[in-house]
Amino acid sequence: MEEERLKSILASLLFAAGEPVSLARLAAVFDDVPRATVHKALAAMAAEYSADNRGIVIDEVAGGYQMRTPKEHAGYVRKLLAARPPRLSRPLMETVAIIAYRQPITRPEIEQLRGVDTGGVLETLLERRLVRIAGRKDAPGRPMLYETTDEFLELFGLKDLESLPDLSEFREIERAVEQATTGPVQGIETHPEDSAAIAPAPSHDAAPSDAAESPDEPGPATSDDDKTSH
User: Fold this and answer.
1) Which end of the chain has less neighbouring CB within 10 Å, N or C?
2) Is the pLDDT of residue 22 over 50?
């Protein structure tokens, strides 16, 4: 199959899917095209879309490829849709950040870091499919373990967990997620003084190796998101 024809078909597949599609799934559509050729075509398409200043870009997100609007067009898209994405409150952001950098992690471990009950927050994150239950820990009481999902990666525009930003950038990410409706998270700036009180687990490869230890400060005041429904 000629390259331009392959690119045209791949564009149709990504457009129709509407969600990140893995290379394996895309390659499985073709009977006579090697996976390496599909990968090369996707890389070329991503470069072309970006260089041509098109209204659509192709990003590698959440373990797959997805058509997304450029971040600089977010304001226009928001006006057209006349809607804002659900806001991630401070308790939600703090909790999902802890899970992202320390996963898999139990509720008691999260509450020890935050200093408040997290039952209601975890329930909300589960409902929004940003975290999921990853089994039970081999410990007294066998508490449930939590980890992030592909939806979490897609929301923050991350290719995989190795792409997690430095902890100090989470305040800016919160602002960016509030402002964006589509496309990858934008406008990330580093403010060391805003570092979340989260220290990545020593065994977690995705966490930055030079992240600062958590300051010995009391946890944030309990908000509505922190109220458990149990």
Assistant:
1) C
2) yes
